[in-house]
Amino acid sequence: MRIIIVGFGVVGQSFIKILLSKSAELYSTFGLNPRVVACVDSNGMAVSPQGLDLSRLLEAKRMKKSVSAYYGNKKFCPSTSEIIESTEAEVMIEVTPTNLENAEPGISHIVSAMKTKKHVITVNKGPLALAFSSLLELAGYNNVRLAFSGTVGGGTPILEFAKKCLRGDRILSFRGILNGTTNYILSKMEEEGLTFQQALADAKQKGYAEATPKLDIEGYDAAAKLAIMANWIMSRKVSIADVSRCGISEVDLNAIRNARQKGKAIRLIAYCDNDQLNVMPLEIQPDDPICVSGTLNAVTFSSEYSGEKTIIGRGAGGLETASAILRDLIEIRDSISVPFDLMA
Ligand code: HSE
């Protein structure tokens, strides 16, 4: 399977590391033989129809800060959309940073790939939080898949759990923690008495925060994920602009201590039902199943027949999010040929 990777930050590089460490297993278990034919970052690109050497690609990025160093001398660089359109490949993986104002450049990359009949995997929340329905429609029109498991929950299959494991039941509402960075900050303040700024610096250093941490702190990231979930799980036609949002920048150590004295904990909670769509810091009971620590995400779904169930797992991190890309890739591989484990 030929793959174009667009965006080569922590998640893109983690995905390559997984491919390198598991290539034999991916083939023997899933019939997956990925060949990365192009890789683009903000400073250039490396292209090879035969498949790039993945160790060399990581080394170019590590040593020279750009995949363009793969060939030694810098070559002429066409635009990213030109590369996406003109390179023969089955799948484009879009992992550029999230832009929640106009979804660029991610949305243009996704459109270019779909128009040239490439399946798309993205962990970029911007395009889906702003234009969910039209992108799904474009995918259908071009007969390609648009897979986005890693946009919500990092490596935790929150979207798949709700969409696939509860088929036939109707989800009436859900509430939960969708942002790992703010949860990390709040729990570090609560458990270790760190100030907001100390906890934020720690989260940035560990690579949990968005390229623009304001997206985490002010609740935009959680709101984007909530909009994606509302569309995908509740069939609501909404965008991030429809989410009522408040972040955690006003939550100081005093507020955390006050909550603690009442036997409660402060968490940034996202909520969706058929009318409401909101993200705000709330005091919750420590024994509430969604009251998790660190970068964990947790969502409780309330459904018509089977009641409440909660899914919890790591919501941020390079390898975690890259594992969601791999799940999507295996699904696409299965959808375009006979699932490997069903082959005789
Ligand atoms: N910055 C995001 C978070 C990364 O902290 O949850 C995963 O989407």
Question: Which key features would you list for this structure?
Answer:
alpha/beta; Dihydrodipicolinate Reductase, domain 2; 6-stranded mixed sheet; binds L-homoserine
Global mean pLDDT: 95
- What is the count of DSSP helices, taking H or I runs of 4+ residues? 12
Distance between the termini: 21 Å
Q: State the CATH class of the largest domain.
A: Alpha Beta
Helix content: 40-55%
Strand content is 15-25%
Written overview of the protein:
The structure is a single chain. This protein is of the alpha/beta class. It has two domains: 179 residues, Rossmann fold (3-Layer(aba) Sandwich); 155 residues, Dihydrodipicolinate Reductase, domain 2 (2-Layer Sandwich), CATH 3.30.360.10. It is 42% helix and 19% strand. Strand 9 and strand 10 form a beta hairpin. The longest helix is centred in the first third of the chain and has 21 residues. The two termini are 21 Å apart. The model has no long low-confidence stretch (mean pLDDT 95). L-homoserine binds next to helix 7.
Topology at a glance:
Blueprint: E1 2-6, H1 10-30, E2 35-41, E3 44-47, H2 54-64, H3 80-86, E4 91-94, H4 106-115, E5 119-122, H5 125-141, E6 146-147, H6 158-165, E7 171-177, H7 180-192, H8 196-205, H9 214-217, H10 220-234, E8 244-245, H11 253-261, E9 265-272, E10 277-284, E11 296-303, E12 307-314, H12 318-336
Parallel strand pairs: 1-2, 1-4, 4-5, 5-6, 8-10
Antiparallel strand pairs: 2-3, 7-9, 7-11, 9-10, 11-12
Helix pairs in contact: 1-12, 3-4, 4-5, 5-10, 7-8
L-homoserine binds at residues 154, 179-181, 208-210, 216, 221, 315-316.
